[in-house]
Amino acid sequence: MMRLNEQARGVFIIAVTPFTDSGELDLPSTDRLVEFYLERGATGLTVLGMMGEAPKLTASESLTYVEHVIERVAGRVPVVAGASGAGLAPMAELARQMMQAGAAGVMVAPPSHLRSDDQLVNYYTQVGQAIGRDTPFVLQDFPLATSVQIPVQAIVRIVNDNPNCVMLKHEDWPGLEKISALRQAEAEGRMRRISILAGNGGLFLPEELGRGADGAMTGFGYPEMMAGVYAAHTAGDAEKAHDLFDAYLPLARYEQQPGLGLAIRKYVLARRGAISSSAIRLPGAKLSPADIGEIEHLIERQESRLQEMNR
């Protein structure tokens, strides 16, 4: 069974959860979506993340979706499953079920009431014990969504205290100095090495890679952008990575609008044939005709820019 570890790198796409127009899980679209992501360079998938509408799924739907994705992936890449929740008992049960289904690890974000370093360290120690030391977990650092600031010194303590914490999903903003500080802590022997994958829709991916990130764990309607930027950076061609990134940046920026980003991403994915419907399970935002017109304009300009680059 594939297990997530500290050496993980590449592009772990945060998968959307496809629904039908009536709001039911769309498993046939899930199959197409998995292939779409893998064909465009994903080296891992993450399901039931914040952009996967996890809180809108029932417990049985969550497990059904995870099992279906893992079955479709068939061991080609690792699958990480979101397990964040208010209580440790349901989190541990869900993590156990997902790992039994073949997940490579689970991702856990901190609850919003945590404030001090000691509270954060104690919480993740409890998480590490509750899910079992054989279950690798990803520490999700996303203050814009969780309202929880996780300082570098707290991350160092969490990593050192929990052998099964193998990855940081870095979504602090601004957060480039945090990556540098964590890699410095590793270099000085104050923290063991972990994988660091960047989020925030890839908006800072070239710079994050330059600071020591191992890749990305996020979503975008054109996942091949992140795969291409990572491949160019890994090959030592930073300028090519930036040029490719620049071609997609206007649409990536547009997709990062708070409250509307998922609707934009699902519209683009449906437009590209990856899913049948752009439906968001209620409550959720709905695009206006003006929104759609702007998206289409950005895609047209993006395609023209890419054609110019490939000449």
From TrEMBL:
GO terms for cellular component: cytosol
Q: Which residues cross the membrane?
A: none
What SUPFAM superfamilies does this protein map onto? Aldolase (SSF51569)
- Keyword Lyase listed? The answer is yes
UniProt: pyruvate binding residues: 217
Q: Which keywords accompany this UniProt record?
A: Lyase
Name of the protein in question:
Dihydrodipicolinate synthase family protein
Can you name the source organism? Answer: Stutzerimonas kirkiae
